[in-house]
Write a structure and sequence with these properties.
About 30% of the residues lie in helices and about 20% in strands. By secondary structure, it is an alpha/beta fold. It catalyses: GTP + H2O = GDP + phosphate + H(+).
Length: about 400
């Protein structure tokens, strides 16, 4: 049986003192702690404070600093189900009872980065003169086009390409994320064939229109497994200008403490906003994602006072400063998971190898504390009061 413990970690001075008592707690005698790394505590900053980007160039005209995720696609493709499962923790089985979206649904998400999710009805023509195109697309962060893999998708592909071509004049560098959705109902062979066929058709049609190398990414998704969270993680990471700094910090932490894999999760959505640059496998992500559900739900009792969906909760902290957990799991030997809540929005989860981290816990705690201090400079969002969300 897995065993875990959750306890407050309010004694950084104890960890600092204990790191000098036994050389064995360091990964090696020549490996410095993260504090000794020249760029660990002071992340790289540009002369102009970054706002957000889409992986290429900003598409911002409104200037409100809240990038939008636009969920588009044909009717009954699964857009509302995706939004409800990812951002509202709705069980996938209950999405069968969601009503069809008849108007543009706007929601503001308050986390490490404020952003908006707009759910568009599938029957609307957004480029009709009756619509204000600039108002819809002026602050776009990513256009997520959902295609139902279990339905006829030729019309969906045609509308997707029409949308991309219409946006090229005003937003030539827009990132388009295509979710080939509901793949859970397809066999492995048919799923792969469908995915490749959709990619080929989209690229061929755009190429025929003279648009080569379009910035379009494709993902296979389902709300019944972790693939939808994995896809959203990749989409969100393109909106974070500080991503290289976060990856460098996580690489330093992994190297210093001999951590196999480290994820920085958004607690509310279980989207990971950054990971170290070692290869990512879906298995380790699934373990960390499930672990968040267990530990965070327990720590809610005495942890951070989190905002409600309508944003009415106070932003003051109550209870312990953070939650810490160490769990032993049987999976081809003893593997260890280490979780620390960095602030009320983010949690660090580390996957460790067979060697027991108990003997190294003091140095791990200390270096995670250094990482936490550096992250406050990267994301000062956690220190601000939670804004009242915009009314749709």
């Amino acid at each position: 049986m897995p065993c875990y413990s959750i306890h407050p970690s309010n004694h950084p001075s104890t960890a600092r003192a204990s790191t000098t008592e036994d050389d064995y707690m360091y990964p090696s005698s020549t490996t410095p702690s993260m504090e000794d790394l020249p760029e660990a505590e002071v992340p790289h900053t540009d002369p102009v404070p970054p706002r957000f980007h889409t992986g290429r160039l900003p598409n911002s005209k409104a200037g409100d600093g809240k990038p939008r995720l636009l969920l588009m696609g044909q009717r009954r493709s699964g857009k509302s189900s995706i939004s409800s499962v990812v951002f509202h923790k709705l069980p996938p089985s209950e999405t069968l009872y969601l009503e069809t979206t008849t108007r543009i649904k706007k929601e503001s998400m308050h986390s490490f980065m404020d952003f908006q999710v707009w759910d568009f009805p599938g029957h609307l023509d957004y480029f009709d003169p009756a619509f204000d195109v600039d108002n819809i697309f002026e602050e776009i962060g990513a256009l997520i086009w959902v295609i139902d893999a279990q339905d006829e998708y030729l019309e969906a592909i045609s509308r997707l390409n029409m949308t991309i071509l219409n946006l090229q004049q005003s937003y030539p560098n827009i990132n388009v994320e295509v979710f080939v959705h509901k793949v859970d109902g397809l066999s492995e062979d048919y799923k792969g064939d469908t995915f490749r066929d959709i990619i080929q058709r989209v690229q061929d049609e755009l190429s025929d229109q003279g648009y080569e190398n379009a910035p379009v990414s494709f993902y296979q998704t389902s709300i019944y497994d972790h693939s939808i969270f994995e896809a959203f993680s990749k989409v969100i990471q393109k909106l974070i200008p500080q991503l290289p700094t976060l990856e460098a910090l996580l690489n330093s932490l992994c190297s210093t403490c001999h951590i196999e894999k480290a994820y920085l999760f958004d607690i509310m959505s279980k989207i990971y906003i950054a990971t170290d640059t070692s290869p990512t496998d879906i298995g380790s992500y699934e373990i960390c994602s499930d672990y968040i559900d267990v530990v965070i739900d327990v720590s809610e009792i005495y942890g951070w006072d989190r905002p409600t969906e309508n944003g009415d909760a106070e932003s003051q902290e109550t209870g312990n400063n953070d939650a810490e957990s160490l769990i032993t799991m049987e999976r081809k030997g003893n593997n260890y998971l280490y979780l620390r809540e960095i602030n009320k929005y983010l949690a660090l989860i580390c996957l460790m190898g067979d060697d027991s981290p108990a003997d190294k816990k003091a140095v791990i705690d200390y270096n995670v504390g250094v990482f936490q201090a550096a992250l406050k400079q990267v994301f000062p969002r956690a220190e601000r009061e939670i804004a009242v969300p915009d009314q749709p």
